[in-house]
Design goal:
Layout: E1 7-11, H1 23-41, H2 46-60, E2 79-85, E3 90-97, H3 103-113, E4 118-120, H4 121-130, H5 144-148, E5 157-162, E6 168-174, E7 195-197, E8 201-207, H6 209-215, H7 217-228, H8 232-245, E9 250-256, E10 261-262, E11 265-266, E12 272-275, E13 281-284
Parallel strand pairs: 3-4
Antiparallel strand pairs: 1-5, 1-12, 2-3, 2-6, 5-6, 7-8, 8-9, 9-10, 9-11, 12-13
Helix pairs in contact: 1-2, 2-3, 6-8, 7-8
This protein binds aspartic acid.
Aspartic acid (ASP) is lined by residues 13, 15, 64, 154-156, 174, 176-177, 186-188, 194, 206-209.
């Protein structure tokens, strides 16, 4: 069976500041959507498109993820990422990973090559090294662009895809929040908080991770669909409201198995782009 509802959604973080110029990010996100669309149309799997898109986001230095990550309070670059595949709910994640260019590729390796869902810290780095993933030193990270657009400082990246088999996949990658403590892990690598994918919905979150952890935002949306019969837009909005009620802020992207998209945010702006099933592409910040 071929699914015609190909969809792709990306976010580049909910920390966008009103009045700043995000033309570079808007163009970059649109380009990634076009590249992902072409791959999905050629039959690529959602999980492969998610990993390729997030790898490009990490390498760009335009977001607080991968190369654009900022150092923590100890001056170290600790990165988090997660990946989830809807049909089987297989998942992989790394937390507080140091010394590698692409945390999302490490997350994929955890998913594909271990019986585990998450590896953290030195163990994650040893695993990434054993898998031959690209190493980088502290000098590789550049917060030049992101530092200028920070405070409030979030710039996680996320990607959701729906492929021609009807499979959903979701991924999230981050450098965390500005000034975070050494060892701090937020929502981004936590399945059910900053990422989720099942047979109905895929979700990736951005914002102050502590609030997304405390509200289990990503799986809350899935449960609202599954157990409360809510529609995607209502479920996504209600889950974000829960974050805001606790005093948090941020945003999220959600994609249903029918290609419906929700991209709510409670912040000044959220870098985001989407390919809808009818082929239209949007890329916006505010
Ligand atoms: N949610 C991420 C974290 O708390 C930050 C972000 O979205 O930019 O680590």
């Amino acid at each position: 069976m071929t699914n015609k509802c190909l969809s792709l959604v990306i976010h580049g973080g909910a920390g966008a500041m009103a009045g700043r110029d995000y033309d570079a990010e808007i163009a970059h996100l649109r380009g990634l959507i076009e590249a992902g669309r072409d791959r999905l149309r050629a039959g690529a799997a959602a999980i492969d498109v998610v990993v390729a898109t997030i790898t490009a986001l990490e390498a760009s230095g335009l977001y607080v993820a991968g190369r654009g990550a900022a150092a923590n309070s100890a001056g170290k670059y600790e990165l988090d990422a997660s990946l989830m595949y809807g049909p089987t709910r297989a998942a992989g994640a790394v937390a507080a990973l140091q010394g590698f260019a692409s945390p999302i590729q490490a997350a994929r390796a955890v998913m594909d090559a271990t019986p585990h869902v998450m590896l953290a810290g030195d163990g994650a780095a040893a695993f990434a090294a054993a898998r031959g993933l690209e190493r980088v030193g502290p000098e590789w990270f550049t917060s030049a662009r992101t530092a200028e657009t920070l405070s409030p400082s979030t710039g996680t990246v996320g990607c959701l895809a729906l492929d021609e088999t009807g499979a959903l996949a979701a991924g999230t990658s981050t450098g965390g929040t500005n000034g975070k403590l050494y060892g701090r892990v937020g929502d981004s690598p936590i399945v059910g908080a900053g990422v989720w994918a099942d047979d109905r919905v895929a979700v990736s979150c951005t914002g102050v991770g502590e609030y997304f952890l405390r509200t289990a935002t990503a799986v809350q949306i899935a449960h609202r669909l599954r157990f409360a019969g809510q529609g995607l837009v209502d479920a996504a909005g209600a889950a974000l409201d829960d974050v805001v009620q606790l005093g948090g802020w941020g945003g999220l992207i959600a994609l249903s198995a029918t290609g419906e998209i929700a991209m709510p945010f409670h912040s000044q702006g959220m870098k985001r782009a989407a390919l809808r099933p009818d082929g239209t592409i949007t890329s916006d910040v505010f």
